[in-house]
Design a protein that fits this description.
The chain is of the alpha/beta class. It contains 10 helices and 12 strands. It has 3 domains: about 5-80, Arc Repressor Mutant, subunit A, CATH 1.10.10.10; about 90-170 and about 270-300, Periplasmic binding protein-like II (D-Maltodextrin-Binding Protein, domain 2, 3-Layer(aba) Sandwich); about 175-270, D-Maltodextrin-Binding Protein, domain 2, CATH 3.40.190.10. The strands form 4 sheets. The protein has a 5-stranded mixed β-sheet, sandwiched between helices. A 3-stranded antiparallel β-sheet has the order 10-7-11. Helix 1 crosses helix 2 and helix 1 (about 5-15) crosses helix 4. The longest helix has 24 residues, at about 60-80.
């Protein structure tokens, strides 16, 4: 097994076609096919199911790809650390829950490592997908929160996927409402006062349970609930329907709008915001900078 073979494997998976991957790698199609077949034989797995339309990654192939991406990433990190080889274009991917501070840290990262070419990815997505992305090395780190309600279940998933959680900030639960909301003038809001209003939560797909929710309070505690997929829609509904959501209290008026305000929620619970990463993974300079940027934006709350 060589790093070149692993690069071939990842490229074929990304292209979904041997011919396209060969062109991208500047090698012949027979040479690429032979390299993939030799790797499959050595690993004892069938990475791709082949058809007239291209290739499809098998279940075994997904697992092999996860290891391949991790090894290639660590090789790049090692070259960067020791200053060997040619300077490569900046590359980094993060998956996160719907937090403005995660976006602000991403902006800082791009400003710091701006170049003629780079490849940066930020995915505001569902909790389960964040765990999957980091476990499969599609993202180097994930931004997520733990509380007494979800840490047992999510902790088991972290251990199952060889992930570790690093706490970077502890927040008290807050309610996000609009500045015209009937409760806007209250200094602290009790959960029962929210009952008449729509509860806005981020939809979690097939894993739509309280353990994967981004919000502290279960939808079952309120008669009115609306599930959304993106942050802009959620805040539009907060304004248009006098709705509310529950989060960390960390708010950015430029990203979330000047009409969104935050009020403490009278509930005995803490939100431990942090990053998840592969165990024993050496973070790239980009992941390290991004993590420090997160801490900076959270420290000024």
């Amino acid at each position: 097994m060589t790093l070149q073979q692993l690069t071939y494997l990842v490229t074929v998976a990304e292209c979904g076609n041997i011919t396209e991957a060969a062109e991208k790698l500047f090698i012949s199609q027979p040479s690429l096919s032979a390299a993939i077949q030799n790797l499959e034989k050595e690993m004892g797995v069938k990475a791709f199911a082949r058809s007239n339309k291209g290739v499809i990654v098998t279940r075994e192939g997904e697992e092999l790809l996860s290891f391949a991406r991790q090894l290639l990433e660590q090789a790049d990190n090692m070259k960067e650390h020791f200053g060997t080889g040619e300077k490569s274009a900046p590359k980094f991917s993060v998956s996160c829950q719907h937090y403005s501070f995660a976006v602000n840290a991403f902006v800082d990262l791009i400003k710091e490592y701006d170049a003629d070419s780079y490849s940066f990815i930020i995915r505001e997505t569902q909790t389960g997908e964040i765990i999957d992305d980091v476990a499969d090395s599609k993202s180097e780190i994930g931004v997520i929160y733990l509380s007494e309600h979800n840490e047992e279940i999510l902790g088991k998933l972290f251990r199952k996927n060889n992930l570790e959680f690093e706490e970077i900030y502890v927040a008290k639960p807050h309610v996000f409402i609009c500045d015209k909301h009937p409760l806007a003038k209250k200094k602290i809001i009790r959960p029962e006062e929210l009952t008449p209003y729509p509860y806005l939560v981020f939809e979690q797909g097939e894993r739509n349970s309280f353990y994967f929710a981004e919000e502290f309070i279960s939808m079952l505690d309120f008669p009115k609930s609306i599930q959304v997929r993106d942050r802009a829609t959620l805040f539009n509904l907060v304004i248009g329907l006098n709705g509310f959501t529950v989060s960390s209290g960390v708010i950015d008026r430029e990203l979330n709008g000047s009409h969104i305000i935050s009020r403490p929620l009278d509930i005995d619970c803490k939100m431990r915001i942090g990053i998840i990463r592969k165990k024993n993974l050496i973070l790239s300079r980009y992941a390290s900078f991004y993590t420090e940027a997160l801490k900076k934006h959270l420290s000024i709350v």
